[in-house]
Amino acid sequence: MTRRLPIRVPANRKVRFGLLIFLVLVLVAAFGPLFVSHVLGQSPTRLHAGGALESPSGKHWLGTTSSGQDVLAQLVAGTRTSLLVGLVGGAIATALAVLLGVLSGYSTGRSGAALTAFVNIFLVIPGLPLLILVASYTRGRGGWVTVAVIIGLTSWAGGARAKRAQTLSLRNRDFVAAAGYSGESRARILFLEVMPHLAPVIASTFLFSVVGSIAAEAGLDFIGAGHASTVSWGTMLYWVQSQGALQSGAWWWFLPPGLCIALVGTAAGLVNFGVDELADPRLRTRRATGPAARPRRTGGLTPEKAR
Amino acid sequence: MTGLASSPSRPTGAAGTTGAGMTSDTEDTTGTTGTGETSAPVLEAVGLTRHIPMHGRHRGQSVRAVEGVDLALRRGQILALVGQSGSGKTTLARLLALGDRPTAGEIRFDGRQLDAARGRDRKQHFSHVQMIMQDPFASLNRLHRLRYILSRPLRNFGGVGSAELDARIIELLERVHLTPGREFIDKYPHELSGGQRQRAAIARALAADPSVLLGDEPVSMLDVSIRLDILNLLTELRDRDGLAMLYITHDIASARHVANDIVVMYSGRIVEGGPAEAVTQNAQHPYTQLLLAASPDPERLLAGDTDGTDDASDASDADNNGGTGTTTGTDRLDAARDADANTTDAAGCPFRARCPHAQPICAEQMPDPIDVGSGHWSRCWLHR
């Protein structure tokens, strides 16, 4: 009765909606390019596939750019690039944040102080200029992977700081000391007693690192620090800007990539509502059994079954 | 479980004790109880001291959390450690559990000196000496089921394999009266009441198959109606399994209920000790008298025996607003917390600032334990 299903569909409607958006975007990124090239017969890079700045039609579902490229094909290709950059960059940033944050919070003495100093140094390095600098230097070499790695390596410090603070507060909890008295090793205490309590923080860091990476990638491409031939939401916006799509009223060109970026952010925000459940088994129970289910600090009000 | 440190180790225990200087001798003559038994101590502290350095504005100073404490826990006996908040009770328990490193002094298990800095010593120690923490809401990780929580010490100390693990866990649960154990094994801590959680915490301590339990106010966070159950469980473990136990409390009445011996701690020092009945019925140290006056005791109120209360109210002249002896005592305890002498100089009796019988000599030196008969002793110049 107390066992959980291996996979639970979150009960929260916001979370469901957020997950749905992510699912759709992932499906588009995975199968969209196939659909575009085989069913619609379009390519994101072919110039003059149609006339310049054609509005949406049966042939070009989202119209064309000023060079006659198919906007839908670009958007779909851009979704794949942006999501990949987001996932890889977010994963790198989160992994570094967890590793350095938790270790610097959990270790005492010199090693802890050194790690904290390292985190602090990265925290005060202004991320965006560094990002632009490195991205302009590599300029397209290595494609989206390089961009993702650069973003990941420059954006973990804030998350690490948050993990450190959480770890510090967890380190002195009674159950950590109790685990020590139970003969647990330090590593085991860290990974199985302390770390699970960080799950919501880690999950929300990951969510927002993904969004942050997507935004950073778009930002880099938008200011022209990316590779001009990559198709991503950022490069689309770059061309929108440089070709003056706004002035010519080509809404089908600038609206889709902008909306997509906003959609990813919204989805992350919605999913974040469900993240708390990760570290509180109490929230997982299907139906709350009323106030009696929370016997905090009063213990004895309910008659004890265990006499 | 109790076979670990029985008779063969006695000689070493005795040898270790003689080398310890004045304190352990006094322990042997005085600390050992009127219950007649004088078995060698299982866990012993000699001159145990812990100074905690302060930071910030008070940098350089240190809190004398525990100051030269001698204690001996014996098989099949409960020693109660009584004192007010901040008197160093928990620090002492952590030191005894090797959860903290002493500034000075020794901890001996079965006569063998232990080094809290050595990981091997610590792990070995945890298999003999287990701690029950004060707050069962904080001491169980809410993310784990009881199965996991209890399996860890079983695996770490007992080398219990997966095959018999469940059976052992259920056995543990039933030993602390969480019955039927099969029903509790998959519960999360939040599905248990406070008393049940504390039982689970006790089960975890027992999983290591220890010979000593250190209870750090094990019932203070629990509802009054459940306290007695847990206390009876502890006495049952003592009587049935012959565990040695340290029962830390600020409630001297419950100490009298469960303990064989009581020691009273004030500001890091032990000021009085002896058989539970003697200490509670015939308190010698002014602080113990004050503590007793602060605990509601219907018998004493009815009998009008206000020995301790009188002393307390003599000194509290102005702020005695006509309450019973009980409220007087409480007021005095509150006032005393402010004037706590933890950070002041080491010399002298820490209680002198509040003591109705303070004399000049109290500021200079604290007396050695003075025997007042049948294993009952006190550290007060009054009895010199």
Write structural notes for this entry:
The complex is a heterodimer of chains A (307) and B (384). Chain A is mostly helical and 307 residues long. Chain A has a single domain, classed as Orthogonal Bundle (MetI-like fold). Chain A is 64% helix and 0% strand. Chain A has 12 helices and no strands. Chain A has helices at residues 13-40, 71-106, 109-124, 127-138, 143-154, 157-171, 174-181, 186-194, 199-222, 233-242, 251-272, 281-284. The model of chain A is unreliable at 286-307 (pLDDT under 50). In chain B, the strands form 2 sheets. In chain B, strands 6-7-8-3-9-10-12-11 form an 8-stranded mixed sheet, sandwiched between helices. Chain B contains 16 helices and 12 strands. In chain B, α9 (224-241) links the parallel β7 (212-216) and β8 (244-249). Mean pLDDT of chain B is 79; it is low at 1-36, 305-332 and 334-341. Helices cover 41% and strands 18% of the residues of chain B. With 384 residues, chain B is of the alpha/beta class. Chain B has a domain at 282-383. In chain B, 52% of the residues are buried. The interface between A and B is large, with 34 and 50 residues.
Number of strands of chain A: 0
Most strands sheet of chain A = none
Q: Indicate the percent of residues in helices of chain B.
A: 40-55%
**CATH H-level superfamily title of chain A:** MetI-like
Q: Strand tally of chain B, please?
A: 12
Strand content of chain B: 15-25%
The major sheet of chain B is characterized as: 8 strands, mixed
How would you classify the helix and strand content of chain B by structural class? alpha/beta
Shape of chain A: elongated
Globular, elongated, flat, extended or rod-shaped: what is the shape of chain B? globular
Helical content class of chain A: 55-70%
Quaternary form: heterodimer
- Derived from helix and strand composition plus strand pairing, the structural class of chain A reads mainly alpha
- CA-based gyration radius of chain A: 24 Å
- First CA to last CA of chain B: what distance? 44 Å
Percent of residues in β-strands of chain A: under 5%
Number of helices of chain A: 12
